[in-house]
Amino acid sequence: MIVVSQGWTMPVSERRETVQTTRQRPPEAALTSREQDIIALIDRGLSNKEIARQLKISLPTVKNHVHNILEKLPVGRRGVAAALLREAALARATTRRSPTP
Questions:
Q1: Residue 88 contacts residue 50 (beta carbons within 8 Å)
Q2: By the 8 A CB rule, do 84 and 18 touch?
Q3: What is the CATH number of the domain that holds 63?
Q4: In total, how many domains does the chain have?
Q5: Is residue 24 part of a domain?
Q6: Residue 3: CB partners within 8 Å, gap ≥ 6?
Q7: Is the CB of residue 29 less than 8 Å from the CB of residue 85?
Q8: Strand partners of residue 2
């Protein structure tokens, strides 16, 4: 089964892996602020070339950041990395909105 979220498709097995990793520690904690900027643009569907233009950095620099992101999280695909961070943010937002008695 494939899950589609904000333009990304992800096999359910990878989605489960994403949720389990998210529960262990916040994935964005391992990323630099520039890597967080890049993963946010990946989540919006931008290509490496588009990210380079928007951030005014070279294409090889973007590729290096993407490589580092995949190593740090650790996942094999950029879409999975973006989904991981999106799910972590959603989990934090849900936790913060817990009802008070």
A1: no
A2: yes
A3: 3.40.50.2300
A4: 1
A5: yes
A6: 9, 10, 11, 12, 15
A7: no
A8: 11
Report yes or no on whether pTM surpasses 0.70. Answer: no
Instruction: Specify whether the CB–CB gap between 81 and 10 falls below 8 A.
Output: no
Q: Which residue has the tokens 């993963």?
A: 39
pLDDT by 10s per residue, the chain, length 101: 444 444 445 555 555 555 454 455 566 678 999 999 999 999 999 999 999 999 999 999 999 999 999 999 889 999 999 998 888 888 877 776 656 55
> Tokens standing for 66?
């993407």
Domain ranges, residue 39: 2-96
Helix (H) or strand (E) segment spanning residue 36: helix 33-43
Q: How many residues does the chain have?
A: 101
Give domain status of residue 22, yes or no. Answer: yes
In a domain, 101, yes or no: no
Cβ-based neighbour number of residue 48 at 10 Å: 18
Is residue 60 in some structural domain? yes
